[in-house]
């Protein structure tokens, strides 16, 4: 089976060669898209085209400033359309990334009322865990034996807290296993118990459609966050989308110019959101990059992207099952709804060493470790509290972890075949490679 990506020519750098340990060079194979994607040509072209017109926004009357301001504000409408946010009721707040978006929301929600419980889950990225811990009582929806979100446990915990849950904060898809969560079912359950839902869409946004649904829908997504750098658009911008009313009363998370209407030594009159939450000189270049990427993704069709990636996902998993000794941590369930994120372990080789061998021997980029989802990976690995305490007390010891490959719309089956061939070679000659590279770890 040969899977050629029709979108490969959209991406910058896919033909770049990188050096190997033997002095040769090969075409780089990037299987680390869940961390950061390479940029699109359309994004870089738009940045270059806009650069002569770049100017500070909102407070200038020059033509370039007015043009930059229009582009910055029009970006919000493009983003709303991309995820079907409400044009009137929702606001799009620009941030640095998903992590800052969730930190901002946690600050805002902590200021507003006395419901003090946040339900996250055992599978969350640390960005959707740590910001809640110092402001709320936080509890975690468990995962099942396959590592998937438990709707049953969510319902049980919502009933247990009897209306005290403010928000259910959940990943749209895991950055470890690739499992998609049933976000609209989670939303329905949450709303039935008086809670709102935040979806961390960092992994979903580049790969499949997201529909926030209307505010009147019981399956409405109240808050959505995602990052441009995982959507083929560098330049450091993310978004927080949510109802305008959420951000109206409290003081802003970040204070300064651009967030105010008028200030004296006696009073401060804050701007309305979203501007109140965007103090300082805004990242208009980031907006240009993100909107260019969104336009390209929408022109292809998110369903088209998802369909191609699903074929490549299943091809990859099938090939991985042929590698000797390999243990997969991402596909124990039947017909799971998933993204192209696959984590595995090769007993006898430490995860970091295996990732380095793939790079040094084949020019193949993967990720290794805990993927900023420490509790989730620790549970998948079966690390008991006693084992965790042991490693915590002995930081000099190599900590257990996994290797993760993650696919983008431009990857193809030829890259997967090269990856599988090298991985199989390593699996059958562990000691040889361990001796060759042991000093590298």
TrEMBL record:
Catalyses which reaction(s): (sulfur carrier)-H + L-cysteine = (sulfur carrier)-SH + L-alanine
Positions of the Aminotransferase class V domain: 29-419
Alphabetical list of InterPro entries matching this protein: Aminotrans_V_dom, Aminotrans_V_PyrdxlP_BS, PyrdxlP-dep_Trfase, PyrdxlP-dep_Trfase_major, PyrdxlP-dep_Trfase_small
Transmembrane annotation, as ranges: none
Keyword Transmembrane: no
Pfam families named in the record: Aminotran_5
Keywords: Lyase, Pyridoxal phosphate
Cofactor(s) it depends on: pyridoxal 5'-phosphate
Keyword Signal on entry: no
An example molecular function term from Gene Ontology annotations: lyase activity
Similarity comment: Belongs to the class-V pyridoxal-phosphate-dependent aminotransferase family. Csd subfamily.
PANTHER family linked: CYSTEINE DESULFURASE, CYSTEINE DESULFURASE 1, CHLOROPLASTIC
Entry protein name: Selenocysteine lyase/Cysteine desulfurase
